[in-house]
């Protein structure tokens, strides 16, 4: 049966009910249980709603994390220095979305965070959640996207009135490290295939350099299959045969599109967890569309979907090496989705955020 | 120069141009249906000649007043065009103002331009239009797709301007100009109006690429003000991708710069069943329209009478619409859709066993 590898132990747990068959235990070092500080940025729009959901669930679980909350809004010029210092101290951050103003001359704060903390890999985990029916089955894709350069360099200028240029910068250094991260991720998570997404038939030098770096790294992991696909063909294949993709590594812009498409086919950006990681820091947020903070109506009615951020916080707990808390949180959320009683509007239901959170808390064991 | 363009356009629009198909150029008298129109036909390679034959047959059965001028890709580089397409072919398209192109395999090698690039640059084809609608009878996961993607075809990320700054650092230029953006926005709204569409959505990433996509959006907004009856909205590309795969019925006409257009139009083609069923039309300066089939030349099934002519047939239908022969276009389109819906005659790629000729005959019978 084609069940996702990772959800197999969880499904076993779900079906076994309260009597869990434990895996071989996780042996902590003495002192590992000391509470860890995590920077929390509620953000704009639906951000405060969903981060509040995470806080409530963590509180109920008595998870060994405590949050240092900071107010950051998308229309600020820069991320405040105290927030950056806090993240540098704690090394881990959880954030809601930061709204990026359109054409306003203010650089996106999401991008600023990524560049300053050098969070060069963005990871979005798109997989079908059991119980949530979508048009596509067997979707289990992880999109790893280069986060610092490419089309998002922010280097634009007006040549003459009416003609604007934007620079897309690709460097070997960044392409190599994202390729290394992608293959390392595949290796550590027992993934079988890495696909590089590009448009090198048109942008021969830029994407050609990206592909070269990927090919070099691929030779060091002979057990992982590697192939390349052009981005327009990739999007076409994603909507018709998504099961052929496993791990995808892409430059910045294509990664944005591919991640959103993959998230859409697997259930929407309201349920996909994701995060940004660099050599020293990690920031967890809703998987795709970090700049999308929802419509005002959803904020007023408090019907935002907390599932994505809850699953991202489970990822964060694993990153902090608290696997049992992560498992409990993840299985509670999945059980709520499976039962289908409490679902927010984007999943076809009518619940408010608080109802979903209460349901998750009730299912925690 | 852009203001001159705007002035000319507003002049033509304010005169209530009765021939909307050539809004920037001389109006062609398409009033009499008996007057034959000359059109250039590039059958192309591989399965090209077979499916071009299909089109000719269907047009003859439907009494479409079109006379074809066939041109083939040469086997020698023509120095005047620096590619395998001869100067005569290009002159023919310029003269006739309409053309139909089959799939062309670009020969690999150096010293000549790619065929598509030649056509695009020489004929100044600035907009690529792809109507995507679900074919009733060919079931995909999406049943309610009915949208048009209009993509700017000349600039943007595909300017081809790249260079290596130092070893290991490459820069690629993305260029957006007011003139090209206005041109494609004008065409998009004009198309929406003449085809009875209600909404035009501009797809962008202006929150990150503020000046470039910002300029594109500004131009779209300017044009939108001239068409108050058409709803105009702006959608960020990542939201657009997600909405397309969740609920494609939300979109009507999409207008986009080059790169996003490439990806989104192929995504939409995937929603309806692939490139083998998608029509496409390139619009050039002066009202030139070159309809084409965007699939490959499929050399492995060439000559075996197995090819699916649907893409080229639907492209020829959009060519007819451009020529304002709407009743003929509707008849042929209905015949094609009915044949596929019936399911009796289907070519191998749709899961059936018919030959190209059988499929064509079935369409002719439905006319």
Would you give an account of this structure?
The complex is a heterodimer of chains A (365) and B (367). Chain A is of the alpha/beta class. Chain A is 41% helix and 19% strand. Chain A contains twelve helices and twelve strands. Chain A has helices at residues 7-16, 47-61, 81-90, 109-116, 172-188, 204-219, 231-240, 252-266, 296-301, 307-319, 323-339, 353-363; strands at residues 36-41, 65-69, 92-95, 121-127, 140-146, 156-160, 163-171, 193-198, 225-230, 247-250, 273-277, 282-286. Chain A has a ten-stranded mixed sheet with strand order 2-1-3-12-11-4-5-10-8-9, with helices on both faces. In chain A, strand 1, helix 2 and strand 2 form a beta-alpha-beta unit. In chain A, helix 5 (172-188) runs parallel beside helix 6 and helix 10 packs antiparallel against helix 11 (323-339). Chain A starts with 6 loop residues before the first helix and ends with a helix. Chain B is α/β, with parallel strands linked by helices. Chain B is built from eleven helices and twelve strands. Chain B has helices spanning 2-14, 48-61, 87-96, 115-123, 178-194, 210-226, 237-246, 258-272, 310-322, 326-342, 356-366, and strands at residues 37-42, 66-70, 98-101, 125-133, 146-152, 162-166, 169-177, 199-204, 231-236, 253-256, 279-284, 288-293. In chain B, the strands form two sheets. Chain B has a ten-stranded mixed sheet with strand order 2-1-3-12-11-4-5-10-8-9, sandwiched between helices. Chain B has a two-stranded antiparallel ribbon with strand order 6-7. In chain B, strand 11 (279-284) and strand 12 (288-293) form a beta hairpin. In chain B, helix 2 crosses helix 9 and helix 9 packs antiparallel against helix 10. Classes of the chains: A alpha/beta (365), B alpha/beta (367). The interface between A and B is large, with 62 and 59 residues.
């Amino acid at each position: 049966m084609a069940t996702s590898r990772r959800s197999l132990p969880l499904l076993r747990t779900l079906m076994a009910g309260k009597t869990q068959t434990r895996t071989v235990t996780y042996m902590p070092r003495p002192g590992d249980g000391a509470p860890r500080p995590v920077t929390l940025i509620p953000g704009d729009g639906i951000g405060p709603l969903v981060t509040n959901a995470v806080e409530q669930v963590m509180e109920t679980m008595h998870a060994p994390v405590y949050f240092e909350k900071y107010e950051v809004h998308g229309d600020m010029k820069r991320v405040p220095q105290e927030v950056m210092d806090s993240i540098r101290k704690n090394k881990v951050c959880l954030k809601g979305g930061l709204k990026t103003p359109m054409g306003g001359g203010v650089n996106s704060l999401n991008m600023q965070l990524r560049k300053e903390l050098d969070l060069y890999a963005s990871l979005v985990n798109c997989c079908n959640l059991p119980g949530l029916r979508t048009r596509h089955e067997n979707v289990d894709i992880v999109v790893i996207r280069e986060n610092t350069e490419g089309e998002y360099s922010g280097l634009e200028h007006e040549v003459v009135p009416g003609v604007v240029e934007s620079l897309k910068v690709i460097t070997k250094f960044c392409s190599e490290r994202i390729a290394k991260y992608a293959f390392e991720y595949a290796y550590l998570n027992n993934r079988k295939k890495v696909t590089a997404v590009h448009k090198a038939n048109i942008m021969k030098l830029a994407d050609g350099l990206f592909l070269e770096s990927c090919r070099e790294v691929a030779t060091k992991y002979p057990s992982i299959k590697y192939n390349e696909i052009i981005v327009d063909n990739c999007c076409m294949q994603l909507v018709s045969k998504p099961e052929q993709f496993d791990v995808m590594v892409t430059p910045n812009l294509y990664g944005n599109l591919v991640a959103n498409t993959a998230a859409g086919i697997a259930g929407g950006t309201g349920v996909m967890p994701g995060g940004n990681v660099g050599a020293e820091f990690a920031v967890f947020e809703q998987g795709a569309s970090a700049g999308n903070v929802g419509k005002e109506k959803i904020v007023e009615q408090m019907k935002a979907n907390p599932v994505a951020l809850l699953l991202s916080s489970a990822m964060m707990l694993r990153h902090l090496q608290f696997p049992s808390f992560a498992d409990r949180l993840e299985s509670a959320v999945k059980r709520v989705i499976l039962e289908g009683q409490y679902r927010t509007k984007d999943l076809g239901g009518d619940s408010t955020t608080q109802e979903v959170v209460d349901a998750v808390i009730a299912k925690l064991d | 120069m852009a203001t001159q363009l705007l002035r000319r356009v507003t002049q033509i629009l304010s005169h209530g141009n009765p021939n909307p198909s050539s809004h920037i150029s001389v109006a062609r008298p398409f009033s009499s249906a008996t007057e034959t129109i000359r059109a250039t036909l590039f059958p192309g390679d591989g399965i090209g000649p077979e499916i071009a034959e299909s089109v000719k047959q269907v047009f003859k059965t439907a009494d479409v007043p079109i006379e074809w001028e066939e041109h083939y890709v040469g086997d020698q580089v023509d120095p005047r065009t620096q590619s395998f397409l001869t100067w005569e072919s290009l002159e023919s398209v310029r003269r006739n103002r309409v053309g139909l192109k089959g799939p062309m395999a670009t020969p690999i090698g150096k010293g000549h331009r790619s065929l598509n690039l030649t056509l695009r640059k020489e004929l100044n084809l600035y907009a690529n239009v792809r109507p995507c609608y679900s074919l009733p009878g060919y079931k995909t996961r999406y049943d309610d797709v009915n949208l048009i993607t209009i993509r700017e075809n000349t600039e943007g990320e595909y300017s081809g301007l790249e260079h290596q700054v130092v070893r290991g650092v490459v820069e690629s230029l993305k260029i957006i100009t007011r003139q090209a953006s206005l041109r494609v926005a004008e065409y998009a709204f004009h198309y929406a109006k003449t085809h009875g569409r209600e909404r035009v959505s501009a797809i962008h990433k202006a929150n990150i690429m503020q000046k470039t996509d910002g300029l594109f959006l500004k131009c779209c907004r300017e044009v939108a003000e001239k068409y108050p009856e058409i709803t105009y909205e702006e959608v960020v590309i990542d939201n657009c991708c997600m909405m397309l795969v969740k609920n494609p019925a939300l979109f009507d006409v999409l207008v986009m710069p080059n790169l996003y257009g490439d990806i989104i139009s192929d995504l939409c083609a995937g929603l309806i069943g692939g490139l083998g069923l998608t029509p496409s039309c390139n619009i050039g300066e002066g009202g030139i329209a070159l309809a084409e089939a965007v699939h490959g030349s499929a050399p492995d099934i060439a000559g075996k009478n197995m090819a699916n002519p649907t893409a080229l047939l639907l492209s020829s239908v959009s060519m007819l619409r451009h020529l304002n022969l709407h009743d003929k276009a509707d008849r042929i389109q209905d015949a094609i859709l009915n044949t596929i819906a019936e399911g009796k005659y289907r070519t191998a790629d749709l899961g059936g066993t018919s030959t190209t000729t059988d499929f064509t005959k079935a369409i002719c019978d439905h006319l």
